[in-house]
Amino acid sequence: MTYRPPTWPVSIKGIAVDDHGRVLLLKNERQEWELPGGRLEIGDPATEVRGDDSPEQALEREILEETGWEVKAGPLIAGGTWIYEPIPGRRVLIITYGCTVLTPNRAPVLSHEHKQVGLFSAEAAAQLNMPQGYKQSIATWYVRT
Question: How would you class 119 by CB atoms within 10 Å of its CB: exposed for 0-12, middle for 13-18, buried for 19 or more?
Fold first, then answer.
């Protein structure tokens, strides 16, 4: 029998804040609020679709696709790498970056991937139905120096 190491899905997430100090969040199919982002894409040479060259590039692409916001990803959030189990037996490695919003006056748009888009103060975000890892990452980003 050949050994096959286990693989984990990885989700790159970003904290993007508008000019009014509100964090951008999306509601998923589980009725949880989450940070925008997603998976790295490998691309397809047959169709000339280019893959992501870095986690930061993937995050910038994902946030643009999901919300219409242009961002610059980085830095990594201290404590923002954690394991989430959205359904029993399925674990996802979450890696969270802070983002600089390049279009802070643009209203975010809702893509087909989510149920709702919202902008929340740090205090309001802490009260939402959202995994604790996201809440901690948001709190860390707001108190950075």
Answer: middle
